[in-house]
Amino acid sequence: MAAPALAPVTRQVSSRTAAAPDPSGQERRQPLAAAVAELPVLDASGRRVPFGELFRERRAVVVFVRHFLCYTCKEYVDDLAKIPKNFLQEANVALIVIGQSSYHHIEPFCKLTGYCHEIYVDPEREIYKRLGMKRGEEITSSGHYIHFIHRDRNRLDHKPINSVLQLVGVQHVDFTNRPPVIHV
Question: Where is this region: Disordered (predicted)?
Fold first, then answer.
C-alpha cells in the first residue's frame, strides 16, 4: 500500500529572518534580479546561456556546488543522479547543477557521478558572488521567481534531496540502493 502523497512545502527558507506566513495562502517568492538572470553559465560544449533562461519558462531545482573536486558535493551529485528522469518529467521540473569550474570538467564529472540531468558552470563565479554565496552551495527551486533557498552553513549542511523534491512536487526517491524486499 502506497503512502499518502504529502502536500508540497512552500515556505521560503534562507539565512535571513523569515517573514510571517502570508495569511492569503499565496506562495511567497522573490524575483531573481535581472542583473543575475543575464549572467552567463556555460554548458559542456562551452556554449554561453543566460542563467535566467534555464528556468524562465519552467520550474527547476538549481543546485550550486562548491566545486567538482569537493567530496561531499560529489556525493550529493551522485545521489541527484539517482533521481529518475520520469519522476522529474511527471512533475514538469528540471534538475540543474551549476559548478565553479571550466566547462571542460563537466563531462568527466558526469561520468564520475553518473549524473545525466542538466549541468552548467559559472567559471568566473559571478552568479555565486552576486547571490552572496560564500561557502558555495545553494539550492533554489525556481520559476520566474525564487521560491526556496537553502544556504549551507558548512560543507556537510546539504539540504536532504527528498525535502527539496517535495517542494516542487516530485515523488519520493529511495536512495538506499537496497534491492526491493518481497514479503511472502
Answer: 1-28
